[in-house]
Specification:
654 residues; 4-stranded antiparallel beta sheet; alpha+beta
Length: 654
């Protein structure tokens, strides 16, 4: 290892430099080819895309090799590497800190660029595809440059270091660290594809519906990855942090939520443009906002301006991303203003009781939601910059303002699926809302019989019942006509997604409103009771390995099974981390944490018990959303694919 010290760094930086040069040449080729319609230059574009992907893979592999071989000549390995870290978490350590996370961003972005270049290879004569690849090359060049300079993972560290502390302990005690960040990044970075096509449409003036159709699946899968990544982050928070919650309105959590909000609005709004040619400015603005918020979120999480359990340490990367954010906004707004005449919609909303009106209301609500989250996230930074004092905006602010927005969105989910395009008659609404309304009544009655109380929870359960009835009505009609194949397609896949969202809303409403907690002082072999459950301490044991000392309390729950909440001290870092133990069922989770101080030779322990109703349904709802996203990505049985196979990507003229 000593003989090869620094070689990984040299190779890795060489790959980053090759990737940056390839991205610059690719951008020049795309711009020159599009402006001159020079097919000879345009045919080079996929080669540059392949080059930068190969360079990104090489750089990432060099970093993994350095981590696996513990090449402590590199500062990054000194920071997150350790001989005692298990192989699984040592592999994931590459993206556990600032420099490695940017390197993973580079890899995924280069992968998307190559995939798009391959996808449009037969359409390269179309100018909008060429311009879109030019935009993606420019974004790639920026990230390669950032990884080469301010976030260099291959920089040499001080000589003589033979071991390191390993990753943050919170990132080496749960398997989800292998999946949550990469999947979240697949969504974060995937937004670049529809954004690039939107900018290309503005540059060429071809702002009709063709580019929307061409990028529909890219948008949908990016949104799906982002959704699933956020859900995995919530699961990680629940299983690791020991506070029994899934969403704390942490600033870094909000940074991932913001592009999801605007992306969700776009996924809905684009239907109106495809069907009626309306909301063109909305759709392009939503894509610009979504991409811009990924850049802003990266600035917030990686510049060190925020204090968060998720945030990375302070670095010089903030100015780079703030500048990129400003450039994206200025260029995008300038292009939208330049193409203002062509963005005017040929259609108008005929009635407030129509599907397009519901989608417009949906856009407005999501825009308000995004503004509330953004305001609460950046307001402390603004106050600190202007008044040199620190304030905190916590969960009460977000809960108070987001609850009415969430209820309004549930109302739209209940009504919009039954609304026809253009105009709805009273008779049509009465017939289509009959069964959904009865589902809402049934949900209300069931909630009252189960002991629910409070205006907000009962409204959530009732509206959830109506919305699920509306979604199930459409799914039943589709499967009655076509069998199970009727579930495939954007409309019915979307209804499956809606059902998942409703389950999540009901789960959060129940768990947030009706959770119970109590701290119990348990004595060995003496039974204690709380909320109809029994808890008995059987033993306190200590487990040691090369990296940690873990003290576990063995607690028998309801006389059936032993659960083991623990406190683990990571010896190289000197940090204590609590690990909860959870009994999960369809109706209720029993969530146990071990409270300090605790000793192995003691016959007593303090245990905090949380009774959390319906948490399992949050994960079931997430799975339904993932299934619905896949179903929505493919055309239904009676729907012919709208994407051209040999014609140019953009065929609609404004």
């Amino acid at each position: 290892m000593l003989a090869s010290a620094g070689i990984s760094g040299t190779i890795g930086r060489a790959f980053l430099l090759v990737g940056f040069i390839g991205a610059i040449f690719g951008a020049f080729a795309a711009v020159a080819g599009a402006r001159r319609n020079d097919q000879q230059i345009i045919r080079l574009i996929p080669r540059f895309a392949t080059l930068i992907f190969a360079a990104a893979v090489g750089a990432f592999a060099a970093m993994e090799y350095a981590m696996i071989t513990r090449d402590f000549s590199l500062a990054y390995v000194q920071k997150v590497g350790s001989w005692s870290t298990p192989a699984l978490y040592n592999f994931a350590a590459v993206w556990s800190a600032l420099e490695g996370s940017i390197l993973m961003w580079v890899l995924i972005l280069a992968g998307y660029t190559m995939a798009v270049a391959i996808w449009v290879r037969k359409r390269m004569q179309d100018v909008i595809a060429t311009w879109a690849l030019g935009v993606m090359f420019i974004v790639c060049a920026f990230f390669f440059l950032v990884s080469y300079f301010p976030a260099d993972p291959f920089a040499l560290g001080p000589p003589g270091v033979l071991d390191g502390p390993g990753p943050n302990p919170l990132l080496q005690n749960h398997i989800l660290v292998m999946f949550h960040p990469p999947i979240l990044y697949l969504g974060y970075v995937g937004v670049t594809v529809p954004f690039a096509f939107a900018i290309a449409a503005l540059i060429t003036g071809r702002v009709g519906e063709g580019w929307l159709v061409a990028t529909r699946r890219w948008s949908l899968f990016a949104w799906g990855f982002l959704t699933f990544g956020i859900a995995l982050g919530s699961w990680w928070s629940y299983e690791v942090l020991g506070w029994s919650g899934v969403w704390a309105w942490d600033p870094v959590e909000n940074a991932s939520l913001l592009p999801w909000i605007t992306g969700t609005a776009y996924i809905h709004s684009v239907l109106v443009q495809e069907r009626r040619g309306m909301l063109r400015v909305w759709n392009i603005s939503l894509l610009v906002a979504t991409f811009s918020l990924t850049i802003l979120g990266t600035f917030l999480t990686r510049s060190g301006v925020l204090n968060s359990v998720h945030a990375f340490s302070e670095s010089g990367i903030g100015a780079w991303f703030l500048a990129m954010f400003a450039v994206v906004l200025v260029v995008s707004v300038g292009l939208i203003g330049w193409r203002g005449d062509k963005l005017r919609s040929p259609g108008v909303i005929d009635s407030p009781l129509s599907r397009e009106a519901a989608f417009l209301a949906n856009n407005v609500l999501f825009a308000i939601f995004a503004f509330v989250v953004l305001l609460g996230t950046v307001f402390p930074l603004i106050i600190e910059a202007l008044q040199d004092r620190q304030i905190a905006v916590g969960a009460p602010f977000f809960n108070k303002l987001s609850m009415p927005i969430g209820l309004a969105l549930l109302t739209l989910m209940a009504i919009a699926p039954v609304l026809p395009w253009r105009k709805a008659s009273t008779e049509t609404l009465r017939d289509r809302l009959f069964w959904p309304a009865w589902c809402g009544v049934a949900a209300l009655v069931a909630s009252l019989l189960l002991g629910s109380y409070g205006v907000a929870p009962l409204l959530t359960f009732t509206l959830g019942g109506v919305a699920s009835g509306a979604a199930l009505r459409q799914v039943v009609l589709a499967t009655r006509r076509q069998g199970l194949r009727g579930l495939v397609g954007r409309a019915n896949g979307g209804m499956i997604v809606h059902l998942g969202v409703i389950l999540i809303a009901v789960s959060l409403g129940a768990s947030n409103s009706f959770s119970k907690s109590q701290e119990l002082s348990l004595v060995a072999n003496v039974e204690a009771q709380f909320s109809g459950h029994t808890f008995e301490l059987r033993d306190v044991v200590e487990v040691r390995d090369d990296r940690s000392i873990s003290v576990k309390a063995l607690v028998l729950v309801d006389g059936k099974k032993i659960y083991a909440p623990a406190i683990t001290k990571y010896t190289r870092i000197g940090m204590n981390v609590g690990t909860p133990s959870v009994r999960t069922s369809l109706t209720t989770d029993i969530y146990l944490t071990l409270e300090p101080p605790v000793r192995q030779d003691s016959n007593e322990a303090r245990i905090k018990v949380f009774i959390k109703p319906m948490i399992m349904w949050l994960w079931i709802g997430t799975a339904l959303m993932a299934i619905g996203t896949v179903l929505a990505a493919f055309p239904g049985r009676r729907r012919k694919p709208t994407e051209p196979t040999s014609a140019p990507v953009e065929v609609a003229k404004s």
